[in-house]
């Protein structure tokens, strides 16, 4: 069995829990997820089966979209609703719609984020959440992330109360912490804040409408029909620039040969999908670091042995 299973991740399970459960349901070991979702977060989690595990990292690096809720008035250790309260400040002012929209606009584009202590980022070979569980605060490396668009999903003209909550939709690039984005929204409004709800609504080309629950997958497995709902691995990397080749070159690609960079890809610095005329992707290539004008294989996905 090979392909991508668009899974709806339920609340209360880690991404790894989902993989563990699917290995039992599908009776196969070669399964991988495409980017960690916190236990509280629900939504789109593409699961790679068989050969498709080779493209998991490229799906992880693709753009994602979320719908979330920020609550202003108190912050937490984990930056979401599951953490202990760190700071409380009763909201005494009335926020206008224009004020909130301005904050969201100012957080669009390239922004700098510091990963939360409760995250999987490694510092000195140890994950931040391991330090956090021991009560140790360490210096965290900031990162630049891309926020493509933030929309306010609330039609109120004014926002008031001891705690103020509103929903938003965000499209963002890899490495973005939406929990931290919620905190940053609060800071820009002058108050501690946290993310009180989050659902991933899209990952690469896959949306909520594509997804199946674990229970549905179990039913399909009992009928032997799981393969009917799998998406081809090409769907997971359709966001990558594409280089179509003929059958003669295809044989060379299957054996990991270097390729001349075609004119339309001269400006590309990231991964490139090399495909046959029938649309099947044979390999992922990148610019050769030492040989100008050439591409080298990053991963061969299909050859006569695979």
TrEMBL record:
Superkingdom of this protein's organism: Bacteria
Reaction catalysed by this enzyme: uridine(55) in tRNA = pseudouridine(55) in tRNA
EC number: 5.4.99.25
Catalytic machinery residues: 38 (nucleophile)
Domain Pseudouridine synthase II N-terminal: 23-178
UniProt keyword annotations, A-Z: Isomerase, tRNA processing
Record has Lipid metabolism as a keyword: no
Keyword tRNA processing part of the UniProt annotation: yes
Enzyme category, top tier: isomerase
Pfam family, one: TruB_C_2
Domain tRNA pseudouridylate synthase B C-terminal positions: 179-235
Family: Belongs to the pseudouridine synthase TruB family. Type 1 subfamily.
PANTHER family membership: PSEUDOURIDYLATE SYNTHASE TRUB1, TRNA-PSEUDOURIDINE SYNTHASE
Role summary: Responsible for synthesis of pseudouridine from uracil-55 in the psi GC loop of transfer RNAs.
UniProt protein name: tRNA pseudouridine synthase B
Organism: Mesobacillus maritimus
Upper classification of the organism: Bacteria, Bacillati, Bacillota, Bacilli, Bacillales
């Amino acid at each position: 069995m090979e392909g991508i299973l668009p899974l709806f991740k339920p609340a209360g399970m880690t991404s790894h829990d989902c993989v563990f459960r699917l290995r039992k349901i599908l009776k196969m070991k070669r399964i991988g997820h495409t980017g960690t979702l916190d236990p509280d977060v629900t939504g789109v989690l593409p699961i790679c089966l068989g050969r498709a595990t080779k493209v998991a990292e490229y799906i992880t690096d693709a753009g994602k979209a979320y719908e979330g809720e920020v609550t202003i008035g108190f912050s937490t250790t984990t930056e979401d609703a599951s953490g202990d309260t760190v700071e409380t400040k009763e909201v005494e002012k009335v926020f206008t719609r224009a004020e909130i929209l301005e904050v969201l606009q100012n957080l669009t584009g390239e922004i700098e984020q510091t990963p939360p202590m409760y995250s999987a980022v490694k510092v000195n070979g140890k994950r931040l959440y391991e330090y956090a569980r021991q009560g140790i605060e360490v210096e965290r490396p900031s990162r630049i992330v891309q926020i493509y668009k933030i929309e306010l999903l609330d039609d109120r003209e004014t926002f008031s109360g001891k705690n103020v909550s509103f929903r938003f939709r965000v499209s963002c690039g890899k490495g973005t912490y939406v929990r931290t984005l919620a905190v940053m929204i609060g800071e820009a409004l002058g108050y501690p804040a946290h993310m009180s709800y989050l659902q991933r609504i899209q990952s690469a080309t896959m949306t909520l409408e594509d997804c199946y629950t674990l229970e549905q997958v179990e039913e399909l497995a009992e009928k032997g029909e799981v393969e009917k709902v799998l998406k081809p691995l090409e769907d997971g990397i359709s966001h990558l620039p594409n280089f179509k080749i003929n059958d003669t070159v295809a044989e060379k690609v299957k054996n990991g040969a270097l390729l001349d960079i075609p004119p339309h890809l001269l400006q590309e610095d990231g991964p490139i999908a090399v495909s046959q005329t029938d649309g099947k992707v044979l390999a992922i290539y990148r610019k050769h670091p030492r040989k100008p004008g050439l591409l080298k294989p990053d991963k061969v996905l299909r050859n006569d042995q695979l």
